[in-house]
Amino acid sequence: MKRMEILYRRLEETDRRDFYLLEPEFCRELYYHIPADKRPPCATAFLTVVNWFAMSQRSGVWTFYESASPQEIQLTLKVLEQRGDDELAAMLRYGAHDYQNPQYAGNWNDPDQWIDESRIIDQ
């Protein structure tokens, strides 16, 4: 936990426009030093949103939705809504489908929904 305290101190000293420089260190601490079942909801939400943004930039946002935990997405939506981040919650919700459902799993015949939702999310 001492490492997190150091990061928080650095955060206080960092201009808000440069927070992205500390983001990888926060992610590393939250992923590797706090087991998933022990993370506070705000940490899970932070990591979920960071992954969502990152995957949308690297390989497309649908990669995130296909691999993300539905429980973590629902928890993140709850945290965002409690904080009043309604616009971000709405964007995250667009692609939150159960991809293990036969409607999606192995079904490549439904690209219209995917394309429409991708356009909204990627705007």
How is this structure best described in words?
- The structure is a single chain.
- It is built from 7 helices and no strands.
- It is mainly α and 123 residues long.
- Helix 5 (70-83) packs antiparallel against helix 6.
- The model has no long low-confidence stretch (mean pLDDT 82).
Helix and strand topology:
Layout: H1 2-13, H2 23-33, H3 41-58, H4 61-67, H5 70-83, H6 86-94, H7 111-121
Helix pairs in contact: 3-4, 3-5, 5-6
For the report, how would you describe the main beta sheet?
A: none
Give the assembly state of these chains: single chain
The average pLDDT score comes to: 82
* Shape annotation: globular
Report how far the terminal alpha carbons are from each other. Answer: 38 Å
Q: Tell me what portion of residues adopts beta-strand conformation.
A: under 5%
Helical coverage, percent range: 55-70%
How many H/I helical runs? 7
pLDDT below 50 for ≥5 consecutive residues: which ranges?
none
Let me know the number of strands. Answer: 0
Rg for CA atoms:
16 Å
> Structural class, from helix and strand content?
mainly alpha
Order of helices and strands: HHHHHHH
Key structural traits:
single chain; about 120 residues; mainly alpha; globular
Short overview:
This protein is mainly alpha-helical and 123 residues long. The protein contains seven helices and no strands.
